[in-house]
Amino acid sequence: MEQQGIEVPRGLSGVVVTDTTLGDVRGREGFYHYRQYSAVELAERRTFEDVWHLMFHGELPDRAARVEFTKLTAGLRHLPGPVREALPAVSRATAASGPLAGLRTALSLAGAAAGFRPVYDLTPGERREDALAACALVPTLLTALHRLAQGLDPVEPRDDLPYAANYLYMLTGEEPAPREARAVERYLISTVDHGFNASTFTGRVIASTGADVAACLTGAIGALSGPLHGGSPSRALDALDAIGTPDRTDAWVRDRVRSGERIMGFGHPVYRTEDPRSRMLKGIAQEFGGPLVDFATQVEERVEAVLAELKPGRELHINVEFYAGVVMELCGLPRSMFTPTFCAARVVGWSANILEQAGDSKIIRPSARYTGPVPPAPVPQLPSAPAA
């Protein structure tokens, strides 16, 4: 008799599938970390390059190592010739879907053009080199695809600008003000990694097959694009637009809940308290101040109150998307670039997970429970053709 599989919750919720040294999310505490450091504290005190170094090398750099790592990664931002030539066609083909869809094609092409080989065949150092190159190219690809879709020429990356400032520079063509650059950098750091979320797990599943880094990242990008995962920062801001004024909040929320719709920007599958990323981003938004921030704060308060009334015991608080949208709007990013910006951060976390998974030769291959018609059923003969 064939051995039956082990029953687990739908969506693998709460199921531990591997060990990791990269970080963890403590949902009941409202806390998450990268390696041994609080992710929020890292966002407040360190640079994006510092956190990238931490995820790839297991330690925060000292000043000399920071300079060396920043110079190394900045030099990898420039697009290879074949990729640059193909981008206008990629942009035209994906114009209706946006830069994240274009990135799936462009990054796959970049990996092929660079000769990425299966991680199964590479040394740890070679895997890291491929991952560094891919991470460095993602902001360049995203901003180039966005600008091409707007009828603008891509902006060449600047090696003298840090990761976040260079990203904004390539997006707008203008060097950003320090306040905006630092706000975006803090957002990027806060979203580098977040446990075994859907996109991270997707990347690790592909890595477990031994595929190349670009293939792993392309799959992770596909998972991130879904509105139930990374595709909702702009939708949370759209909700503010739909509400319009604070006095309309209660009726708007009740209407959505009664019709079975999700309130984007609220609730999280792991946290049972306020999302610590949102707490930090709310603080960044309040540093800017203004009507949008005041309105978002009022809406947050009323939505949580109405959800507590309609869904008692559910603990539905704001998640990272709510104030992420507000901060990115305040920093001048177009809404079509909200999720791509999330991707520009998370690619580092995905890559660190891919590198870790590549060190394990066991392929991830779960089972499914068949619930269809009882087999084996006789295969019917194809009826004879009617006589002419």
TrEMBL record:
The keyword Transferase applies. It holds the Pfam family Citrate_synt. It comes from the Bacteria. InterPro entries: Citrate_synth-like_lrg_a-sub (IPR016142), Citrate_synth-like_sm_a-sub (IPR016143), Citrate_synthase (IPR002020), Citrate_synthase_AS (IPR019810), Citrate_synthase_bac-typ (IPR024176), Citrate_synthase_sf (IPR036969). GO terms for biological process: carbohydrate metabolic process; tricarboxylic acid cycle. The active site is at 268, 321. It catalyses: oxaloacetate + acetyl-CoA + H2O = citrate + CoA + H(+). This is Citrate synthase.
